[in-house]
Amino acid sequence: MPVNKPSFSQERVLNRRRPALLAGCAAMVVLTVAGCGSGGGTGTTAKDGFTQVPQKDGALTVWVDATRLEAAKLYQKLHPDVKLDIVTYDGNANGSNYLQTKVQLFNRTGKGWPDVVFSSQNNEVTWAVDAGFAAPLNKGLIPEATLGQFANGANDVCTVNGTLYCLRNDLSQVVLWYNAPLMKKFGYTVPTTWEEYQRLGEKVAKEHPAYLVGDAGDSFTPEIYLWASKCGANDITGPKAVSVNTTSEACTKMAKLMDVLIKNKSMSISGVFSTDFAKAKADKVLLMPGPAWYGGAVFKSTLKTPAQQIAAAPIPQWKGDTAPSTGNVGGGTWLLSQHSAHIKAATDFLKWVTTDNAYQGEKAPGFPAHAPAAENWLKAQGSSGYFAGDLGALKDASSQVWPGWGSGQFSQEAIWAATVKPGMTQGKTIASLLPAWQDTIVKYAESNGYKVSQ
Amino acid sequence: MTLTRSLSGSAHRRRRGAGRQSRAGVAFVATYVLLLIAFGILPTGYAVYFAFTDAGGTFTGFSNFVTTARDFRFMDAVGHVAVYLVFWLVSLVVFVVGLALLLHRVASGTVSKALRFFYYIPGALAGAASVLVWLFMLDPTVSPVSSLLGTLGFDTFGEVVAPGNLALLFAIIAFWTGAGGWIVVMYGALNNIPKDVMEAAHIDGAGAWQTAWHVQIPMLRKWIVYMVILAFAGGAQLFVEPQLLALASVGVAGRDYSLNQLTYDFAFQMNNINGAAAVSVELLVVSVSAAALFVARSGFFDAD
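Output (structure tokens, whole complex):
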């Protein structure tokens, strides 16, 4: 219902010749907005799979986070004729829900929506479609040919019942980052199986105590280790259905591996962004399973690891597993508003920002979801000279993300942080916390209206 | 107390200025009433309307209250807020009254002025800013008192913000930010106790303790009740401290901790504005009942 509200009020302003009818309509707005709107002819058109408001000239409002500000500014520089109103917000980082909060307020007031918005979360469509905010993109706005160029499965998180409601900005496939010169100095080889990984961790604890083979202290820890291990903690089976099982073998064997390494201190539990980690462990990282954006955001910017040290290898696999699988930590999405009065300009911006080499292929900090841009990005990373060796492992991993872990409306990261992390701090093992973890996931899922099977 | 005294003092001037004064009074009250209606009564009415209807505006009785109370976080949040209130109100009453009495006994003007200023400083920081100060204080890696935290057995931020410590931490933060202003208010109230009463106590041989216990504290009673009512209402609405802590600890501690956070979650994460309104109406009812109880038991509105 709120969808039709703004168009109706515009009609009321434009059509001054028929005040009596309008007064009637105005009275009716309280009762049935939709009914009055359809009777009066509001200027809305059904096109591209949704009802569009009358299109107007004017500035295109774009919401981005601080990191994506560069993208919007670059677009403005390359398209000086487009009037752009760039607004920075927190990008919904850490599940802050800022965007959702604002959209629901805009829905109540009937105005204020941004035309295009970036979110650092990839579960926005779980609410943005029901809220009537996200516009369908594969019903005419973005050509199939362009959509086909995105990495396999990249836009799964944007799809509801076969309709695409957002475009993925970057992929966050998990790889095994390592310090190449340090590995060489210690005489270790990069492990390819989890069994080897665990043995190496035990060796490091004995031979080079204080050095680390990983970190398990972040809220997204389960998305690195347990997702890669194909643990069925978060299998979103339908728009409002989830299957949760955290005590299967896939989960417990990874939990036990982590418990061993946490106990011998070759795996830290402080979290890579904690003050503690940057201060005491920044130069002790030997290996580190982590998403694609660790390269720039963690090693280069946060830990200030010098150039020519960090390299990426494929994430280890369990011995005997045939198909390689890995996890994924976030990866932003771009949404286009159904309420936009500048759909053409908005679509142009959206297409440019997700696919154009000028940004995604050259400047983007994360691994682009758009495959041709990703090719270019890898080349650009190679010539930047920061990494030791090429980042080919990222490309392989981009299509190996295990599909059995979904993006629900409730935040898995928040649940892990509040349920498992405090226990780990008290010295409990992850294996012993798995049942409590499942219990909390189920409670959150149910309270968000999900049908849960265990 | 101050008010009645100054009014009786100006009694002889009243006749001439009565008309002007009453007009000024009406103007002041009218402004307040307008603001109260716009930002107090109307939103409250709006919330009550929401609490008893569904998203489509149909009357639903108590179903919003039942749904929200059945949420698995509800009883936890009630427990958290209750424990926090106990810590916060007890510490507030004991330390504010104690420190104000101490301040009142300090004869030297400079020391007293300096202390008053000192007590008041934290209160001058805006709520969110003072919480951020505490987030630094509580993180052993950056805290200026990290050795103290170390002695208490806390080596990482995660250990400090363990679930069991939260109520106490929030009470400490709230005390640090909110108590200074109250100490100054209590000090003012102590200064208003008539000199002859204090002298009579002194002549009767009452020491510092006896004067405080039998004379000063009973005469502060209304101020203490006033403080408790406001602190109770404020404390029941606990939000900023846990919310910021949740952000700072990346969700490890403080998420869904208080009832107000739960309303925020209902309204904006679960798109259940009506449920959120139901919880806030419950908070209002509890706070108003508590205030009514305190007022009735303490004779708050009795004339002196």
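Chain A touches chain B at residues 94-97, 100-101, 104, 127, 130-131, 217-219, 269-271, 273-276, 279-280, 409, 411, 413-414, 417-418, 421-422, 425-426, 443, 446-449 (CB under 8 Å).
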